[in-house]
Amino acid sequence: MIKSLNLHRNIFIKNNITTIFSFRCFTSITNKYNKLIETSNGKTKEYKIDSDCKITELSPPPHQHQTSLITNEKKKGIEIVKRLFLPSDYPNSVSKDYLPYQKWMFAQNVLGSATYVLSTHALLSSVGVSSSISTTLPFAAAIAWVLKDGLGATALVLFASRYSSLFDFDLKKYKFRGDILHNLGVLLEMCTPFLPGYFLVSASISNLSKGLAGLIYGSTRASLNRSFSKKENLGDITAKYQSQSMAAYLTGMAIGSTSGILLNDVFSHLHYSPHLLNIAFVFNISMIHLYCGYRALKSVQLKTLNKKRATIIIENWIQSNSTSLMTIEDVNNLESFILSNDKYSKLCDSVHLGSSIKDAFPTNQGIDQLINTKNGEYVITHHSDNIYIVYYENSDTKHRVLKSYFHALWFLSKNKIPPSLRLCHFKTKLINNFQFS
């Protein structure tokens, strides 16, 4: 598979040793009109330099003292919110796509928390907890509750052992699929009151679905947070994301609890089932939840290359005869992560990297070339409208994957081998802009 290629320009390299300088607190000083203007962690101070080179801190301008109390309190409130929920030295410490993503994710987390309250109420109703204390079977309900968690967790472990490595290569696609799984699990939980005899089965499946979504969220979050980092502040970004998530969780809990009470009060006198009305309400919230997740992912400008983004860059380079690479924004905008029927997805599916010999040579024709080739990097075969690439063990892993993939896509587009000069020019451009991780 194609490994991730990271774009890092502000890294000092000496004697093949990469050193990343990380500062806990960075201060910048500007000399302007015989003044020193110091900026540190978003705060600005001014100093005057007299003829004896004595430095004196200047008081704030007079108009700042005349600012109304309401304005001052508003500024203090904004600073508190920034300190609680945004990384230090925001916005200089994160990429420009950080805030759009976090705004949509906050809205999505609020909606997810609200549906959690309503779906949990439906689960409790299905085991008799909400009907009345006299008709409740505490022990049976507890056993059913534990079993559905246990069965869901067991299936989750089996799934993670097989598919967890895929999350790094197609982050956006699996993150959105996680949103779909989460909402399917919530809607299935809402239906459990109508399936009293199948509580264990339906609750276990819904718990598994939401558990898979949680697994995907946790697996993709680190890569997303890393893409936002500009000053090696991954820990700070992660911590502030947790703060934002908790605020969204509490807000959603309040909305979900209030909505549940209001819905029951409003429709208690109607002939419709309150469970059906709750399902309709949660379904609408789930659709908005999916939309927020989609907008959040579309706002992310990933600086790494997976197979899909590499296909977009190479295919546009081949078709346009361009001498410059696409920008990061253009590549991310063209990347589709919902459907897999666009031309780039079809090209991705047509090229099989690291194929087995059996797949590359189904009729054994040409296998002698594979055996007798010396000092080779890879062998490409073409049959059944697919390209198969077999790599030699001792060839350079990083560059051979890029080179072979370029060869494969060029052959699919032009039905011939690319000129060596064209390939060399492309590799130089890509390597100068992207760094292999």
Automatic annotation (TrEMBL):
Gene Ontology cellular-component terms listed: membrane
Domain Root UVB sensitive protein C-terminal: 326-413
Protein root UVB sensitive/RUS domain span: 73-320
Compartments where located: Membrane
Record keyword Transmembrane helix present: yes
Entry's transmembrane regions: 110-133, 139-159, 180-201, 275-297
Keyword Transmembrane helix: yes
Location (main, coarse): membrane
Keyword field: Membrane, Transmembrane, Transmembrane helix
PANTHER family registered for this protein in UniProt: RUS FAMILY MEMBER 1, RUS1 FAMILY PROTEIN C16ORF58
Family to which this protein belongs: Belongs to the RUS1 family.
Protein name (database record): DUF647 family protein
Species this protein is from: Tieghemostelium lacteum
Upper taxonomic lineage: Eukaryota, Amoebozoa, Evosea, Eumycetozoa, Dictyostelia
